[in-house]
Target: DNA polymerase III subunit delta'
Amino acid sequence: MMNWSTLGEKQPVATKMLQNSIQKNRIAHAYLFHGPRGTGKREASLLFAMRYFCENPQENEEPCGECVACKRIQSGNHPDVHWIKPDGQSIKKEQIEFLQKEFTYSSFESDSKIYIVEEADKMTVNAANRLLKFLEEPSRRTLAILLTEQVDALLDTILSRCQRIHFYPLAQEAYLQQLRNEGLSEANARLASALRFDLVEAKEIQSDEWFANGRKIVVQLMDRIVQSNEESYIYLHQTWMQHFDGRLQHEKGLDLLLVWLKDLVYLHLDEKEQLVFIDQMDRLEQQQAHLPLHRIKAAIYEVLQTKRRLAMHVHPTLAMEQLILKMER
Model:
């Protein structure tokens, strides 16, 4: 189970600040956890919520992890802990209004409520203004935790009402070792680290069949692109488009594709210690023999452009068709 001790190994400053606020009973009404993806922001918000409602807190402000409240928070089913995530491209005003309505009702199991806003920088202007009013006029004992990778994208008025906790980029080797210690295979540990997954996300891919199949599809698509025949276009429609559904899933597939292409670059540069797909060495070497470095770099550029097109609401099928055509040149 995650705990403050484990989090403190990679984020000592943030962990100490949060533990101190609990120990001294100086919990702010709003926090902003900001820093790159995979640095522990979501883990910290879970731990903070667990300790906030824990029925049997341990030494050093550790949640017990065994009481009803801790288990319900870990499973995402606590009635007084609300998670807000982007609905498609953004967090919309209606989501914040619904949250405000929920918070007018009496708490089910305590006199407190917590709401956690993931990717807070993706709030629309109207949603941000609604949240600002909520921060200015909290009802009952209300605690807000905002998570973001792009702190500059938030309104200054929101920033001024939050206690900011900075989560620093992790040393890759130290994080890799932590993932190994958590029981991840070497291949999954390297992939989770490359994709900047936090510990919770990283552990999930161990048993995530959708992710495992997506990984295979990306590798098989690259096989067909290297062959430079019409099979890649057919494979795109018959397999890729069936598996990756919607913009967010396509972005995950493209992120996997970027990692594969970067591995091909590492092979060209004879930096095998940097490889992520270490269990696919034979396949990587076969593809490297057919793809010159300049073509791989061009492919990386096109994948990044495709991600930008998806963010601009270009239809995923059209965006992926354009990508395949350009990568086969």
